[in-house]
Amino acid sequence: MFNKMTATLSFIAVLALGSAPSFAADVNNGKTLHQAKCYQCHAEKSGLGNGDIIYTRADRKVKDPARLKFMVSMCNTELRLDLFPEDEADLVAYLNQQFYKFK
User: Fold this and answer.
1) DSSP letter (8 states) at residue 62
2) What pLDDT was estimated at residue 33?
3) pLDDT at 63 > cutoff 80
4) Amino acid 98: pLDDT
5) Is 26 helix (H, G, I), strand (E, B) or coil?
6) In angstroms, how far apart are the furthest CA atoms of the chain?
7) Cα–Cα distance between 82 and 19 in angstroms, integer?
């Protein structure tokens, strides 16, 4: 018999599954994704043929980890890069390790 107690327990179980710990980001996959999906566009955008300059310039837009995640997600959506959420996390981890060094 389905009652309020069963519904409550089902709801709690769904919440618990949704908050399960995620796997650590794969920096090597992030590097591969960066080369395949990001570098060329950023090289063209910089006008200097170097896709890394966008991350190291003085007027860069990313100043904290939340903004880095937002920018990766925005590029994925706007440019239709077809990255899965774990790919975005890998890319963020790579960019942070290589360029930003946020804690």
Assistant:
1) -
2) 97
3) yes
4) 96
5) coil
6) 68
7) 24
Cα distance between residue 60 and residue 63, in whole Å: 7
Side chain identity at residue 45, one-letter code: K
Distance between CA 58 and CA 65 in Å, rounded? 17
For the stretch 25-52, pLDDT in tens is 999 999 999 999 999 999 998 888 999 9
* Alpha helices per DSSP H over the chain: 4-18, 27-33, 39-46, 53-56, 65-78, 85-95
Phi, psi of 65 (to 5 degrees): -60, -35
CA distance 61 to 71: 9
Q: What is the mean pLDDT of the chain?
A: 84
What's the pTM value of the predicted model, to 2 decimals? 0.75
Amino acid at the residue 6: T
> How many C-beta atoms surround the C-beta of residue 101 within 10 A?
7
Rounded to an integer, what distance in angstroms lies between the CA atom of residue 88 and that of residue 80? 13
Residue listed under structure tokens 């590029």: 75
Instruction: For residue 26, give both structure tokens.
Output: 């794969």
